[in-house]
Specification:
Shape: globular
Helix content: 40-55%
Largest sheet: 8 strands, mixed
CATH class: Alpha Beta
Number of helices: 7
Structural class: alpha+beta
CATH superfamily: Nucleotide cyclase, GGDEF domain
CATH architecture: 2-Layer Sandwich
Distance between the termini: 6 Å
CATH topology: Alpha-Beta Plaits
Strand content: 15-25%
Order of helices and strands: HEHHEEHEEHEHEEH
């Protein structure tokens, strides 16, 4: 058995993402001061509508906690800057793990990961690595830099689940959206709401497919609002708070070699 997580998290990737965040902050600091008026909705590119593809994948929701209340005390331009910097960073990280952003959920993002492999352990690994990276970049780069611009401090939440879903574009011409349909997507949305501030909550199927080493970093959730069961309607379907975090990139490579020797 190989190491629990890959070597993809490294100084090179961190530096790329860190520079990306810095560019987004500077670019949007300028843009927010030059927001023009508009009289029509920008046109959207229509894709194939009404078709679907069945696949095993992971669905992730990222969102800010209490975003509406926090941003009600700042200007619209400042709110836009937060969204431009934070959501584009999440999108950039999802792309790094070959994922797809399905849609924006106001102040959040819904993404699908693990669509390029049939191996459930690899789907789980790609999903959890991208979530760990989002968490690291938010805490180390994105939120501190936004605060340095005089913007309010925010907490985020991440929810992830995996399983069989239908990927479909729903709607009409010029009025449609791409989405993942199925219980895993529904559970992921609920998990995001139940996640701890700046935390990651995952469903039982994703937890089951993680490397055994990572099971030590799972704490079963007990929120009464979680009411999922297996098809027998008796056996509880659990969720977990996931606490493993990336080391600083250079230190992670040392840890990766240690774990690789352990599980070789």
């Amino acid at each position: 058995m190989s190491a629990p997580l890959s070597r993809k998290w490294n100084s090179k990737l961190y530096n790329i993402l860190s520079r990306f965040v810095l560019v987004q902050v500077k670019r949007n600091a300028r843009r927010s001061k030059k927001v023009p008026d508009a009289r029509t909705m920008p046109d959207l590119t229509a894709l194939g509508i009404g078709t679907a593809k069945r696949m095993s994948a992971a669905v992730m929701f990222f969102d800010f906690e209490n975003f509406t209340n926090v941003t009600s005390h700042i200007s619209q331009e400042d709110t836009l800057m937060i969204l431009n910097v934070a959501t584009t960073t999440v999108m950039r990280i999802v792309r790094e793990w070959n994922g797809t952003v399905e849609k924006h959920t106001g102040d959040g993002v819904m993404a699908i990961l693990g669509t390029e492999t049939l191996k459930t352990d690899m789907i789980a690994q790609q999903a959890i690595e991208s979530a760990q990276t989002i968490k690291y970049m938010m805490q180390v780069d994105v939120l501190p830099q936004l605060v340095a611009q005089g913007l309010p401090s925010l907490n985020f939440r991440i929810g992830i689940e995996m399983g069989e879903v239908l990927i479909s574009r729903i709607g009409l011409h010029k009025m449609n959206f791409l989405t993942a349909v199925g219980s895993p997507a529904n559970r992921a949305a609920k998990l995001e709401a139940l996640s701890r501030p700046n935390g990651i909550a995952i469903g039982e199927n994703l937890a089951r497919n993680l490397h055994p080493y990572l099971h030590d970093f799972l704490e079963i959730g007990d929120d009464p609002k979680w009411d999922w069961h297996y098809p027998d309607r008796i056996t509880p379907y659990n969720y977990y708070h996931y606490s493993y975090e990336w080391y600083e990139p250079k230190l992670w490579l040392k840890e990766w070699f240690r774990l690789n020797r352990m599980y070789r």
